Amino acid sequence: MTRRIALTFLVLTTVLLVLAVVPLGGLMTARERVSFRDDQRSATRVIASAAEEHLSDHRSATPMRKELDVAAEAGDCAAVYDASARLVASTECAAARGEEARELVNRVLAGHEPEPPENEGRLLAAEPAGDVRRPAGAVVLARSAAPRDARIAAIWGWSAGIGLLGLAASVLLSVRLARWVSRPLSSLDSAAQRLGEGDLGERAVVDGGPPEVRRLAATFNTMAGRTEALVHGHRAVIADVSHQLRTPLAALRLRLDVLAAGAEGDTAAELAAAQGEIARLSRLVDGLLAVARAEQAIPRPVAVRVDEVVAERADAWSPVAEERNVLLTAPPGPALTASLGSGHLEQVLDNLIANALDAVPDGGSVTVGHRAAGRYARVRVRDDGPGMDADAKAVAFHRFGNPEARGTGLGLAIVHRLATVNGGTVRLEDTPGGGLTVVLELPLWTGASPAPRSLPDLKKR
After folding, report:
1. How many domains does the chain have?
2. pLDDT tens for residues 269-313?
3. Where is the domain boundary, 238, 262, 294?
4. Does a structural domain hold residue 283?
5. CATH number of the structural domain spanning residue 360
6. In 23-61, which positions are buried (b, 16+ CB within 10 angstroms) versus exposed (e)?
7. Span 105-133, pLDDT tens digits
8. pLDDT tens digits for 196-225?
C-alpha cells in the first residue's frame, strides 16, 4: 500500500509540475526572444536615425560613426547603406555586409518588412533610414544570439531545478503520508490474520494514523473480544455436554450389559435392542460433538500433500472395503499441496469414504481421485451406489439432512463445514451410470515449502 500511495502521489505531482512548469518555461522563452529582438531593433533604429541625418540632410557623418563605434563596443556588427544599396559605413565585423544583409537592405528599400534571418549564431535586423516608403538608406545590425540562448538555457535550467525540487518534496511527502496511512492498516491486517488463524487473544494496537483507522481498530478489538467470549463459551458447552452425556450413557450401557448377561428369552431380546439403541445414541452424541467442533474450528493453514493423504486414507479404509466386498481404489495423480488446517483433509476423507462404503451394495466400487483445477486441488469421491435425488442433495449438508442415511446423518455436515472454513467448496454430483460423486475443491498452498504433516487420527468421525 505504501508503494501504491507514493507512486500515485508522485505521478499526480509530476503531471501537475509538467502542466505548470513547461508552459511557464515556454512563455518565458518566448518573452526572452521577443525582448532580445526588440532590443536589437531599438539599437538598429538608433543607428538609422543618425544615418538619416547624414544621408538625407547631408550633415556630418560623425554622429553616425559614433553610433557604429558604440555598436562595435557592444559586440554587434552594423552597416549603413544608401538608397542605392551601396555600403556607406560599417563596423570592422563583416557579418552585416554579406549576401543576406544585402537581401534585407533591398527589401527595406523596396518598402517591405523583412524576415530577420539567423546566420552562424547571429541575428540580422534591418531598419530604414528615414521614411519607410521612401527611405534614404538602410541599416543592418547583426547581433550574436549567444546571450539570448544562454538566458533561455538558464530559464529551462531553473525550471528543471524547480521541478526536481518539487518532485523530491513530493516523494518525501508521499512516503510519509503513505506510511502514516498504511502502517496502522498493516498492523490491523496482521492482527486480523492472526485472529483468523485462531489466536483469539489477538488485539490491534493502533496509536497513529487517520481517525477512521483508529476507530476501525477499536471496532475490531470489540469484535475480537466478543468472538473470543463466544468461542470460549461454545467450547465450555461442548466440554460440559461431552462429560454430562457420555458419562451416564457409559453407566447405562454397563448396567444393560450386566442385565443382559443373565437374561433369557424375550427379556434378552429386549435388552439387546436397548443396547443397540444406547450404541446408536452414543454415536449420535459423538457426531453432534464432532459437528460442533467443526463449526467452531478456526484453522491455522499448513501445507498438506493431497496426493499423500488420499493414498493414505484409501489404504487405511481398504480392510473395511474388503470386508464389505467393495472395491476401493485411489488412482495416482499429480503431487498437489493444499492449504488446510492440520488433520482436516483426513477427517473429510474419512467421512466421505465411510459414507460411500455404507451406500454401495455388495460388489460395488468407490474411487477417490484428485487433480489440479486452477488455484484449487479437486478431490472426487465416486461411488456406484443408489445416489441421491435432487431434494436429498439440497439438504445433504444440513444436520440430519438425509433421513434415509444409515449413519448419524452428520458426516456431510462436518465435511461442508471443514471445507468452507478452509476457503474451499464441496458439492454433490451424479456419477455417470448411477451413484453419487462428492467434489471437494481446496485452495492450493502458496508458501515456499510444505510444512511437515502430522499423522492423522484414524478414528472414524
Report:
1. 3
2. 887 888 777 777 776 666 666 656 655 556 678 899 999 999 999
3. 294
4. yes
5. 3.30.565.10
6. eebeebbeebbeebeeebbebbbbbbbbbbbbbbeeeeb
7. 888 888 777 766 665 578 888 888 887 77
8. 766 777 888 777 778 888 888 888 888 888
Are 118 and 228 within one domain?
no
Amino acid identity at 87: L
Q: Do 85 and 104 sit in the same domain of this protein?
A: yes
Cell of 87: 555600403
Reported as a single tens digit per residue, the pLDDT across 314-325 is 999 999 999 999
Residue 63 lies in a domain: yes
Q: Which residues pair with 82 in a beta bridge?
A: 137
**Type of residue at 309:** V
Give me the amino acid identity at 250.
A
Q: Which of 158, 159, 153 is nearest to 19 (CA)?
A: 159
143 shares a domain with 11: yes
How far is Cα 234 from Cα 454, in angstroms, rounded to an integer?
26
Closest CA to 278 of 305, 245, 306: 245
User: Which residue range forms the structural domain that includes residue 219?
Assistant: 211-294
> Which helix (DSSP H) or strand (DSSP E) does residue 301 occupy?
none
The one-letter amino acid at 169: A
- Please give the C-alpha separations between residue 359 and each of 33, 310, 352, 363, 387, in angstroms, as whole numbers: 95, 20, 11, 12, 8
